[in-house]
Amino acid sequence: MRSGGGARVWDADGNCYVDLMCSYGPILLGHQHPAVEQAARAQAALADCQNGPGPVMVDLAELLVDTVQHADWAMFAKNGTDATTMCCTIARAQTGRKRILAARGAYHGSAPWCTPRPGGTTPEDRANLGYYTFNDLASVRAAAEQAGDDLAAVLVSPFRHDAGYDQELVDPAFARGLRELCDAAGAALILDDVRCGFRLHLGSSWEPVGVAPDLSAWSKAIANGHPLAAVLGNDRFRDGARSIFVTGSFWFSAVPMAAAIATIGALRQEGAIEAMEHAGTVIRDGILSQAKSWSLEVNYTGPVQMPYLTFAGDSDHALAGLFAAEAIRRGAYIHPRHNWFVSAALTDDDIAMVLAATDEAFGAVRKQSTAS
Ligand SMILES: Cc1ncc(COP(=O)(O)O)c(C=O)c1O
Known about the structure:
Blueprint (H helix, E strand, L loop, with lengths): L2 E3 L2 E3 L5 E4 L14 H13 L8 H13 L5 E5 L2 H16 L3 E5 L25 E4 L4 H11 L3 E6 L15 H14 L2 E5 L22 E4 L10 E5 L4 H6 L10 H16 L2 H22 L4 E4 L6 E4 L6 H12 L2 E2 L14 H24 L1
Parallel strand pairs: 3-13, 5-6, 5-7, 7-8, 8-9
Antiparallel strand pairs: 1-2, 2-3, 4-10, 9-10, 11-12
Helix pairs in contact: 1-7, 2-7, 8-10, 9-10
The chain binds pyridoxal-5'-phosphate.
């Protein structure tokens, strides 16, 4: 991709697309958001990579603690994998235990303990993990029982967003059950908010559900495209966080931190989450009515800001692949196997361009399914 502005991106050949992937999540307010880029430029004019972190690290930590209810402290890194891995390390350091439970099929990053492709990893990398089924409390209890008094943490994402599957919102009773189980076991509840963070709610994504994690992992959207990750935690896990050694050559760069402060400011001032909800609802309603008019049975799942579309019976994603290719050709940048991301920058014109593209893409799918 060559460039971007607002909700539009241009490829190396100059083709223009309405961006419904948002760089797989980091773009929240639109590409080149003026206030964010201005803050980044102002910080860059002072310094970025220094002998120590800049004052913006303290300002950002305070802002995050102010913004996210469960957070009493913050630590920073670069990528989501850094953040999920640090959460596990902190939970183990605090509890003195080894076992971590994760949902089967959930994506938490690309380190040996969590990569979905095991090439080059060893069984020992995952030796202290147990697995449960998302939204199935009985399966968590069974996995916790196996872990016995060695349970350090339960890791969970705000909703089920495994690539290639219809998405599943969290059952609030499941979320509350995890909290109770972790409290009873003295284990950490870790929320992986890397993909959802600040797209669904200006706070932890489980605040609307009423469940507070002990630790949460963040990255993607927190600096509107600038490279940054964060771990937020409560006081019970402060000593564990203090005790571990984690760092990286660029983890304390000041520019992304200045961008994150401006991103949170713009989220507050511009009603960005409401704007994403609105745009996402118009797109969902338009797409569902188009599918109906083409007599195509689809599943449109997940929050409207992070939707995913599948076709009934399309187990090899062939129709989804055709739909995405035809939509992209007509200027709506979507994905056949991964949830999409709606930004706050979408205008009525952008949405009209998306819906014109998806209508024709449905036409191509109709033709293909009638022919076969
Ligand atoms: C839920 C979730 N956790 C962790 C990660 C890993 O983040 P990163 O790719 O920045 O390492 C991702 C990335 O897609 C993610 O979606």
